[in-house]
Specification:
The protein is mainly alpha-helical and 430 residues long. The chain has one domain. Helix content is 71%, strand content 0%. Helix 8 runs parallel beside helix 10, helix 15 runs parallel beside helix 17 and helix 15 packs across helix 19. The radius of gyration is 22 Å and the shape is globular.
Length: 430
């Protein structure tokens, strides 16, 4: 009798607590970005990247800036941008929780670690980082595709074609839009989306339809990347774009020189030489040591989450395919590593691949392949794999992960020893 009363309440408690945590972060971000606080709400460099527009003609990265410019008639764009980035953060949080609940993970420990990972939802809200970069749009699009995949698993045969076509329409139209917003999509959202398309192809009978739509996506995005690369701009176009912004916005972004193109707008004409030099600067300054720390730390968290999700699958279906499941996760992580060759803002890329891998991990628990026994014989390695899995999911690893998440802050770029510690003093003082 007592158990029948307590158990539903425990389940409800498990579902409510993570939602409350996310709502707190959304409230904090909303209060910061839409409140009466004067001055810049986040870094001027981050803001300037959003404001690249088409006032000098078509140019790479200009779509979202042109939409903001047109909607605001060129005035008070910072105010519009604050609201826009807040809505992006709130939307991503909603999609993240929707994937978690729709995939029926039901593991508070997994969800808490997924929210706490450096560059994840909770650190985003506490440090006002990452959600104010264009990668948040990549995550939103990939999250929508993951939701389509989950809906596809539940669809009746007569609705299956609709959800497949809807998913690919979002992928193709969204991918084109993302490329016009930031060409870095080719190195981040594109590889993971292709992986998701491959899974859909393997798991559905409509091979020709899926292959045809996948071919369109696979070909169009690189072609658009090449096209955007031919319109990277120069000093003249950068100055025209900068002058198109209102004087008040320019003064806020660059008070010392409001009449000279600033930040990402000024760097529109950069070529491969400048990008390689920024990457070389990471090695020359010794910053690679700190990036290696976060790369290993976040990778450990993703492995920990993957192994715990194996337990979720085993409890749900009574069988687990660890080689298949972890192999897909690792493949998704590895094929996104090409993003490290396009710029030195490696914190942004680590944050993206960490969040996207978590979305993919949650989604894959609903895959038909997750409920099939392995076709290969791994009995010889079973004991070794079990020991490794047990060691990586032990309470000691959990404590280490929590210490890592609560102690270190993943910087967006320009990492140094004074930027890696979580800024509790700054947070509480505000």
């Amino acid at each position: 009798m007592l158990e029948t009363i307590i158990k539903p309440r425990v389940i409800l408690f498990k579902k409510i607590i993570p939602v409350i945590l996310v709502l707190i972060m959304v409230t904090i971000v909303g209060g910061w970005l839409t409140g009466s606080y004067s001055g810049l709400k986040f870094g001027s460099w981050q803001i300037a990247e959003w404001l690249i527009n088409y006032q000098s003609g078509f140019i790479r990265r200009g779509l979202i800036g042109q939409l903001l410019y047109s909607y605001g008639d060129g005035q008070n764009l910072l105010y519009l941008l604050y609201w826009f980035t807040f809505l992006c953060y709130a939307l991503y949080c909603t999609i993240f929780l929707a994937i978690y609940f729709l995939a029926k993970i039901e593991s508070p420990k997994v969800l808490l670690i997924a929210l706490l990972i450096p560059g994840g939802i909770l650190p985003m809200g506490m440090t006002m980082q990452f959600f104010n970069r264009k990668e948040i749009l990549f995550l939103i699009l990939f999250g929508i595709l993951c939701l389509h995949y989950l809906w596809l698993q539940r669809a009746s045969p007569k609705w299956r074609t609709f959800w497949i076509c809807s998913m690919y329409a979002f992928a193709i139209c969204g991918g084109i839009s993302m490329m016009l917003i930031h060409e870095g999509y080719l190195f981040m959202g594109y590889p993971l989306t292709v992986l998701l398309m491959w899974l859909v192809y393997r798991e559905n009978s409509q091979k020709f339809l899926i292959a045809a739509m996948s071919f369109i996506y696979i070909v169009v995005i690189p072609i658009l990347f090449i096209y955007c690369a031919q319109h990277k701009g120069d000093a003249s176009s950068a100055q025209i774009i900068w002058d198109s912004l209102s004087l008040s916005d320019r003064v806020a972004l660059s008070k010392a020189a409001p009449y000279t193109a600033f930040g990402p707008i000024a760097s529109l004409g950069w070529g491969m030489t400048q990008h390689l030099l920024t990457i070389y600067g990471v090695y020359e300054a010794g910053g690679w040591i700190y990036w290696l720390l976060f790369f290993v730390g976040n990778s450990l968290i993703l492995i920990y989450l993957g192994l715990n999700l194996e337990v979720v699958i085993k409890n749900r279906y009574g069988i687990v395919a660890p080689v298949w499941y972890l192999r897909i996760l690792m493949l998704g992580f590895v094929i996104s590593l090409a993003m490290f060759v396009i710029a030195a803002d490696w914190g942004r890329w680590i944050a993206f691949v960490s969040n996207a891998s978590i979305l993919l991990a949650f989604t894959l628990t609903a895959s038909p392949s997750a409920r099939k026994p392995l076709s290969v014989n791994i009995s010889a390695n079973k004991s070794v794999l079990s020991k490794v899995a047990f060691a990586l999911t032990s309470s000691y690893v959990l404590v280490a992960i929590l210490l890592y998440a609560f102690t270190l802050k993943l910087p967006e770029c320009c990492v140094s020893s004074n930027l890696i510690w979580f800024p509790y003093g700054l947070i509480f003082s505000n």
